[in-house]
Amino acid sequence: MKGNCKLCKKSFTGRAGKIFCSLSCKASYHQKLTLVTDVATRDIDKILHRNRKTLLEIMGKASTSKKVDRSLLDSKKFNWHFITHTHINSQGKTVNFVYDFSYIIFSDQEILIKKIRP
Ligand SMILES: [Zn+2]
Fold first, then answer.
1. pLDDT recorded at residue 37
2. How far is the CA of 94 from the centre of ligand 1 (A)?
3. Residue 23 half-sphere exposure toward CB, CA atoms < 13 A
């Protein structure tokens, strides 16, 4: 099979489905993807990491569950817009996740933070 390298555009012959002329072009291509992804996600990753640090700080190492007032998270500049995923629990409440931490916001503005066990 003849083709043109996806990275350097050089023509090559090889097995069907081959898209790079060499292992080094394949590696460079994936390095570039990794690099542009790192740059594009850096700012949001920073916010998410900061949010996780805040939850860890509030929780401390000893406990796996803690109820606090929303204002405590606000005072630590917790960014409510950035979470990693959500889940609806059996009571129909939205559980917000920041990596391995979760929190539920109650109507009285109390926050139940939990750490997921590994
Ligand atoms: Zn190439």
1. 98
2. 48
3. 0
